[in-house]
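Ticket #4471: structure export looks truncated?
Reporter: QA, pipeline team
Priority: medium

Steps to reproduce: submit the single chain below to the structure queue and open the exported record.
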Amino acid sequence: MPARYRECLLEGCGGRLVVTVDQDHCLLVYPLPEWEIIENKLIALPSLNKQARLLQRLLIGHATELDMDAQGRILLPNMLREFAGLNKKAVIIGQGKKLEIWDEDTWSVNQEEWVAAVQADEGELPAALEELSL
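Actual output as written to the record:
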C-alpha cells in the first residue's frame, strides 16, 4: 500500500478498518468511521424486502474489523481470502472512501471486460453522471 494511503488510514481512523465482501468477488476495505455510515444505511433498509436482506447478509454478515500494523498491513481471515480467490498476488484499487482488494488474475480479466464494455458503449450512463466531465 502506498505510504500516503497508509499514513492517512493510520491518522484518520487509527488503523481500524472493516473488510467485507462484494458481489463482484473482491473485498471492500473501509476505514471504521466510513463503514459505520454504510452499516447504518444497510440496517435501515426495509427488512421485508428480499434484496435488502440479501445485501445485509452479504455486507454486514461478512464485515470483519481489522487493525493495521505500523507498516500498514492487515491479516485477512481465510474466509475473506477464499471468497475473493486471493492466492499469491493481489491488487489494491482506491475507490474514493474505500479500497478494493482483488486477486490479480481476476482483476486483469475483469479490467479487460470493463474496457471492452466502455469501448462498445454498453449500457446507459446514469442521469446523475451525464454532466460529469473527466
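Status: closed, not a bug. The export was complete when the record was re-opened. Leaving a note from the reviewer for reference: The beta strands are 16-21, 27-31, 64-67, 90-95, 98-103.
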